[in-house]
Specification:
14 strands, 164 residues
Length: 164
Amino acid sequence: MKFSTLFTCAFVAACLQPSWGATGDADAGFTSTADKEVTSIALQADGKILVGGDFANINGGTRSRMARLNGDGTLDTIFNPAPNGAVYCTAVQQDGSIIVGGDFTSLAGGARNRIARLSATGVLDGVFVPEANGIVRTLVVQADGKIIIGGDFTQIGTVARNRL
């Protein structure tokens, strides 16, 4: 298991709260579990937690590879975009939109090749369709709103882009 995966899994299981002290004591009240790998965590402005990976169940609820948790770690039963492949990265834009990258070809009921944007509530953005020809493994949203992605692709849409 890669270090980043191990750290991410530990984070979901224990939710470290550095504001509780220099020792990073775990929040014993935050108890979340996933049945398989968790590879991505992002925090929304309202305190809800986006979780991505290759799991089928989280906190006893069926969620295919992506879920949202409430601030206390319980499953948000309304959010369920159900990508058909692994989610490796997520980021939240300033307007609350969610960027998702991974190895999927559909998400939230629509066709998307490995990168997509959802509204804060999980509705697929019909305008954002960059289409990567390979896995999107990492992404970041810059302060100016531009998105940088990295992964195993050589093309985004019709433009040649070698992995970055």
